[in-house]
């Protein structure tokens, strides 16, 4: 991965990874899509890009489709198991094909892969906006617009699984936990999964990249219920029957890291001081701590969880490797377990 790209992804997907929302729980895959397609572009033989008009986002949204065998000849009733891959904090829906090369995976030839983008720093949540709510409603966008649209018009079926790196992993886990049965399996790579434990970390990251973190999820002391409302650890009961794959680097240098150090984020000095020996990525070290906490809670419930914590930072291409580790679990859910 180019160093400049690595650094940008660290800032955008790692520094401000939190989501929280004060809106009520959204239902899974409603029948009527509230967004519409403005443009459809074929990027390659199997790759289609959609541009949507999104009321929830207050503007356009983009979705990439990696199509399965026979998709171009589909009839009105044809449906495929569907894997949703959620973008990280930079919102770039193309990362899965440009950096992680999912189109090269032979296992996905029989699966429709849906890769929605989102606004920069969207956090897969409906923004709190200092109590006013309103756009961007990123979680509403996914649940009310993307999923219904691809299920109605593009051959997506009711067997669903989801994965995400960084902020995308937070979004996938958060929706799976709050809407049991939405996904047959879910995976998260280098994601904050219990962010209310480290609010200063995520607010500092938001400020560092020029985002008003308080507009997204509120003040952690005054709006702590909003933070808690979207915390996957807090909703772990909703994952009792969903196979989960959790992976994170521990913040020490690993084999897939580039030579450049991760940028220091002002306001995280406490967490830097508390970091263990050899930690060079406090963002990933915090993600690892939260990953272990959620894994422990799921294990205590006898929930089906697999956990992999490894040497690595937030800038490396570990999502490429970890998706391949998680893929057997995700595909087993898609092929063996119909979801409502």
From TrEMBL:
<dbReference type="InterPro" id="IPR050583">
    <property type="entry name" value="Mycobacterial_A85_antigen"/>
</dbReference>
<dbReference type="GO" id="GO:0016787">
    <property type="term" value="F:hydrolase activity"/>
</dbReference>
<protein>
    <recommendedName>
        <fullName>Acyl-CoA:diacylglycerol acyltransferase</fullName>
        <ecNumber>2.3.1.122</ecNumber>
        <ecNumber>2.3.1.20</ecNumber>
    </recommendedName>
</protein>
<dbReference type="Pfam" id="PF00756">
    <property type="entry name" value="Esterase"/>
</dbReference>
<dbReference type="InterPro" id="IPR006311">
    <property type="entry name" value="TAT_signal"/>
</dbReference>
<dbReference type="InterPro" id="IPR029058">
    <property type="entry name" value="AB_hydrolase_fold"/>
</dbReference>
<dbReference type="InterPro" id="IPR000801">
    <property type="entry name" value="Esterase-like"/>
</dbReference>
<dbReference type="GO" id="GO:0004144">
    <property type="term" value="F:diacylglycerol O-acyltransferase activity"/>
</dbReference>
<feature type="signal peptide">
    <location>
        <begin position="1"/>
        <end position="33"/>
    </location>
</feature>
<comment type="similarity">
    <text>Belongs to the mycobacterial A85 antigen family.</text>
</comment>
<dbReference type="GO" id="GO:0050348">
    <property type="term" value="F:trehalose O-mycolyltransferase activity"/>
</dbReference>
<keyword id="KW-0808">Transferase</keyword>
<keyword id="KW-0732">Signal</keyword>
<keyword id="KW-0012">Acyltransferase</keyword>
<keyword id="KW-0378">Hydrolase</keyword>
């Amino acid at each position: 991965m180019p160093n400049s790209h690595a650094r940008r992804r660290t800032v955008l997907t790692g520094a401000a990874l939190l989501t929280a929302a004060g809106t009520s729980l959204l239902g899974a895959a409603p029948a009527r899509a509230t967004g519409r397609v403005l443009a459809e572009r074929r990027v390659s033989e199997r790759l289609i890009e959609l541009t949507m008009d999104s009321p929830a986002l207050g503007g356009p949204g983009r979705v990439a489709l990696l199509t399965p065998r026979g998709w171009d000849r589909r009839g009105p009733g044809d449906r495929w198991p569907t894997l949703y891959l959620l973008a990280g904090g930079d919102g770039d829906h193309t990362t899965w094909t440009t950096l992680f090369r999912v189109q090269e995976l032979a296992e996905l030839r029989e699966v429709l892969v849906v890769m929605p983008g989102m606004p920069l720093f969207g956090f897969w949540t409906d923004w709190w906006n200092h109590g006013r709510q309103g756009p961007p409603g990123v979680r509403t966008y996914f649940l009310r617009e993307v999923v219904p649209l691809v299920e109605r018009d593009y051959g997506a079926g009711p067997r669903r699984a989801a994965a995400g790196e960084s902020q995308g992993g937070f979004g996938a886990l958060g929706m799976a936990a709050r809407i049991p049965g939405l996904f047959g399996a879910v995976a998260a790579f280098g994601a904050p999964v219990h962010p209310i434990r480290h609010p200063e970390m995520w607010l500092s990251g938001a400020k560092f990249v020029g985002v008003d973190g308080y507009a997204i999820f509120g003040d952690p002391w005054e709006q702590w219920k909003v933070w808690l409302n979207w915390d996957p650890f807090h909703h772990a009961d909703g994952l009792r029957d969903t196979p989960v794959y959790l992976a994170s680097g521990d913040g020490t240098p690993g084999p897939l890291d580039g030579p450049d150090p991760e940028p220091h984020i002002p306001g995280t000095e406490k967490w830097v001081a508390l970091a263990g020996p050899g930690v060079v990525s406090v963002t990933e070290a915090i993600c690892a701590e939260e990953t272990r906490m959620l894994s422990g809670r799921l294990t205590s419930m006898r929930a089906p969880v697999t956990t992999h914590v490894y040497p690595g930072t937030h800038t490396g291409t570990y999502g490429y490797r970890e998706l391949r580790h998680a893929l057997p679990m995700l595909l087993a859910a898609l092929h063996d377990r119909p979801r409502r």
